[in-house]
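Here we describe the complex-level prediction in full. Unlike the single-chain runs in Section 2.1, the two entities below were treated as one system.
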Amino acid sequence: MAFGKAKRKSKMVSYAKWGYIFLIPFVAAFIVFQLYPLFTTFYYSFFEYFKPQVSDTFVGPNFVGLENYKTLFTNSKILVYLKNTVIMWILGFIPQIIISLLFAYWFTNNRLNLKRTGIFKSIIYMPNLIMASAFAMLMFSLFSNSDTGPINSILTMMGFSPIRALDTVGGTWGVVALMNFMMWFGNTTILLMAAMMGLNYSLIEAAEIDGASQLQIFFKITLPLIKPVLIYVLITSLIGGLQMFDVPQILTNGKGSPNNSAMTVIMYLNLNLTSRNYGVAGAISVFMFVICSVFSLIVYYFFSRNSASSSLRKKV
Amino acid sequence: MKGHLVKESMSLKLWRAVSYIVLIFFSLLCLFFFFMLIINSTRSHYQIQQGFDFLPGSNFISNFKKVLSEDQFPIGTGLLNSLIVSGFTSVLAIYFSAMTAYAIHVYNFKGKKFMFNFILLIMTVPTQVSALGFVDLVNKMGMRNTFYPLIIPAIASPVVFFFMKQYMDSSLPLEIIEAARIDGSGEFRTFNQIVMPIMKPALAVQAIFTFVGAWNNYFLPSLIIQTKDKKTVPILIANLRSKDWASLDVGEVYMMITLAILPVMIVYFSLSKFIIAGVALGGVKE
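The structure predicted for the assembly as a whole is:
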């Protein structure tokens, strides 16, 4: 099949120019709206370029070398914000991967043979498509700090004392993590499920005949076989987590309160962009670009190693 | 031997019960906050202040009317703006991603492999890191506070491209294109009239995802859009959040959130089977 395709393609050399023509829109849009802005972002990170609050005109751009980076790492809390981002990501990711593995296993287990799984899948995937900013506004309203707020009034009804979750660091992290968990565990479940369904069932059957327990099969056969997909899920989730913005931004009204504990890197970038502090915003962008690029490269190698086609095809 | 089988099926039954209970628990968790949202959107400011009630109130219509006549957060205009931006974004993203995938799938040219690898490489680079340059560019082009900078960049959507390419690998035989050529069809006509109809399932899945992605997008639009009449829904939600909570009619707040969320929820639940199949198929949704 693959050979036939390759042969046939080689006869099409005369159409080569059409390949370029069809690529023009993508390449043009990419260069203008992504590549060029990326360069100017890098460029401005070496310049003094900001708008003072009282004035209408910008200061700069004046070349200052690495001054913005120095400011970023000595005068700002960028590393604290990075730490906050990673903590909130981990708090959401750990329950996410555990529950997703469990659900994917249950959904694909022939012996368990669950019914009506379609409904469950539909429901758990749903939060992924919800507008994150509206969801955050909803959680803010429900957890609102008055003792008669909706969540608190339910807690009171159940005999607990009301909590002021968004006033405490742990509570705020908890709400963000809960939202990230809810928004992503359905998606991860479906990806892992597709991976597990692609496994060769005869392997599992053979292990069953040899007397392996379900637990042994899961840990010794299923998990190792879906490892590539697990790595893909981990890294894409980490890249997504590093970009965390909408949820903590709306939840804390951009303040990252209490005490900057919920301030993420992109929230800090947004703060510098809206206050027209472009030099420092450039340095933050470059910092994020470097971190994300490292992880992107890992995903890239993962894809190209898997012959650049679906990661979820049958492989044994 | 028989006893062993009976015991096995007993523990299996137990496992099944446990898995149903856990599944129901997490499904309810997913629905619970939205259930509270819908309930509160039917209750008046005063009723909500009294504490939560599991039964809906009778203020749905009046909250709805109040929100629509609200001048500070023009949600009607916002919904329309979001619809325009998301609709065009979605159309551009799927059409041009299919075109890009077609170029790489069908033609042989120098640099083809490089192009494919390059798009894979940039797939996971976040758009936020070039936001500064993007805003600067938009200002210089005089497109600040317009919808164009929110829509046109969708022409280069690596993730949609990747999905389209995968779909072509599995369902677009090159024989069809050759046959079209023999019949005298030009390359553009082949793409528009023969290939696009074959791509319909993939186009539909990605149309939904790109639409929802644009509908929910907050970061870039908030940096581009300035005036009230151009604001999309997520920006209005952020404005709502920045107001003093004590000065707001809470019933209206819940109604606004409902209006922001409900359209996507309705579309989702009417197409969920299709959407979930799409997620499993793509495997690369961020």
